[in-house]
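User: quick one
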Amino acid sequence: MNQKTTYLNAGTTIKSWLLTQDHKRIALLYLISITLFFFIGGAAATVIRLSLMTPESTLVTPDTYNKMFTLHGVIMVWFFLIPSIPTVLGNFLVPMMIGARDLAYPRLNLASWYIYILGGIFTLAAIVAGGVDTGWTFYTPYSSMFSNSYVIATAVGVFITGFSSILTGLNFIVTIHQMRAPGLTWFRLPIFLWSLYATSIILVLATPVLAITLLLLMLERVFRIGIFDPALGGDPLLFQHLFWFYSHPAVYIMILPGMGVVSELIPCFSRKKLFGYRFVAFASIAIAVFGFLVWGHHMFVSGQSVYAGMIFSLLSFLVSIPSAIKVFNWTATLYKGQITYSTPMLYALGFIGLFTIGGLTGLFLAALAVDVHVHDTYFVIAHFHYIMVGGMVSAYLGGIHFWWPKITGRIYSEWWGKLAALFLFFGFNLTFFPQFILGYLGMPRRYHSYPPEFQVLHVMSTLGASILAVGYILPFFYLIMSLRYGAKSSNNPWDATGLEWQTESPPTKHNFHTTPTVTLGPYDYSPVTGGFIPQGVQNG
Amino acid sequence: MNSRFSWVPEQASTIAGDVDRATFELMIICSSILILVFGLMLFFGIRYRKGSPHSREIRGGRDQQIEWGWTLTALTLFIYIFASSSLIYFHLYSPPPETSEIMVVGKQWMWKFQHPNGKRELGELHIPVGKPILLTMTSQDVIHSLYVPAFRIKQDVLPGRYSRAWFQATEPGIYRLHCTQYCGTMHAKMGGSIFAMSPSDYLKWLQTEINLSSFESSAGDQIIGPQVQRLTMASRGGRLFTKLGCISCHGFNPGVRAPSLYGIFGKPQGLSTGATAIADENYIRESILNPKAKIVQGYDPVMPSYVGLVNEEDILDLIAYIKSLEGTPTSESVNGPQELTALPSPPPLRSYP
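Assistant: Done. Structure below.
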């Protein structure tokens, strides 16, 4: 047996993993840690859904319920969704897609993982100590002066993890600017890289605002310095402005990378060029920029001025245009393609469907008078889960399946893969579609008990969640099984054009034997023959 | 409070129909876009599946027109939705000139209401149908939000300031009332009911006694005794005005140490900084709790703060009293310091955990 040398067997000690500077190994460290956090957040969601089976919660006390939805939000937002695609697929693919050996700052990359873990430890410690009950939004003065739970430890955890985001964003920006292979011009970059570039801009610019906000919150809580609590001379709305100035762009941190993944999958499985490449590329940048100007749409009933409300509403409608453009372009890409329905494609099509519903229901929330009625109800919950879970998690799993043969060198069971994708799609819709109706009927969010007439819809939602859970647990098992029993993958099992496919599966430690030269844009697929021309080839 | 399930929430205010119409319009527009996208995906997905016999030759060249076509179509539709729902929102925030005002105080985890005649309620609000009702609301602790699904209104209730909402109920009935801003352990139970009644029933109801044993006594109750719960808000405020000693500067010789409060409500006041401020509820509240923040021109900042001496309901009573002061002082409205005794020290308004 002549064993190939790959990044996976280039060192086998624990030290060679924990002190690695190889972007591919760091990607796997992230994969393992965010999967762990995903299942912790998922366990909290399970408690929430089970206790909502009955109008009066009999499963947990109100305080426990409040801690569960806070835990779910904090873990899922900062420890799963924000890092998910950038730190796993981004870390693995950014250097490979541009023909580089590694990211610009490999040590910083490793540091960002340790910072992430440190933040995670603080947050988990807060949970073990007794939990936090403020909601992931930490609204003041409840969080700063009234809550009796572990607000500081949690805020410190999130504060620390923010630096991990900043470092990752910085690393991607520098790498994409400086390390592209010869011939790889900006308009030859795969859309995945445009998306990550846009995401990185937000990570670097918005995350410091979150850090400042949490710091101010801690100052008020610990030293009673009046910043947000009116009783101390502060202003509670100031917190909301600062928080959403970060957290609305953060929503785009959570969806732009998913859009990038889907923009890779749709052309490959339709054997067609992406329709409107430049429009899609610029739409990503437009979303990143305009995303900073719409935070006030979270505050239409907060007491901000009516005129501010109108301006934020108008800007919110404008920011929805680039997203609409992307959906239309993906759909147009299917026209006259040679479409196959492999597992990644099922996830990608699921993404378009769920993201479109999530996006369109966002228009209801941007529309002022309608938002007044559905604000802080289950309508909002359903809307953002369609984007975050239906959209981002579908794209993340689609991407994991697509690049799994490259990452591990193994092929997973296609049958189980398709089954899991279908479970996710139907389970998701059954969980969250009833919540749109609940919200319109006036079911407020963050309630441990509710009027009895809502029980039917809540039970439907819980039923859907159990199907959804199967959709999450299945991949966990068959992907791990594939490591041992899966067939060996060829270098380019999908006949894809990207540079990452023009090297071994799994790649060697330095990705390429020689630096590739790029001669074409991405997605040079032929719908007539089903063939393709790779973006570039390794020299010599 | 209909406990049968229904797909559409009850419509019980003048605004509810407009909001539902806007929602329905949006639903039509969004469903059309959704059906278009899903339909095309399905159609292309089947027609152009791998190996199907249909031609894959593309007559390109019109991509730009297609891109701009759908971009501008979406833009036009979205601007239309923006405009139509903004008009309703503007209406929602413009109370008509003649309203009956009800004071609302939110606290963990209950709603307190007070009618102009001084009648107080806890967790229940009785209102007449067919009359615009203005809610002036504040919170004693954290942020709450008052939500009445059947009326399609929702407004955050903040500590340290007054927020407003108005509505006009159309159908007598009992409607759910919720807090929708997460406020701690029993957030889900910080609800109640709105009893919309015919105006004559409402008038009758206003005259009935209400069991006040469930109310905690306010600082004001300790100062002027429990019987005052039968007084109107303004006269209760008037008694507090005397007992708290406000009257000694603002009452007998107004204009010497302190400005007169007659007829100031809603009028601009010139400040020592040269700016002007409208003497509205928020201004009066601030002047009671933090008198040095805005000094009326020509006066020294000598007034002490009343933090800890009055609670939110007392301040609302004082505001009601100041609103009732019109024209110039008369012997009836200034009834002098009757039994100015030392004030008992009331409990602190709020204790921090």
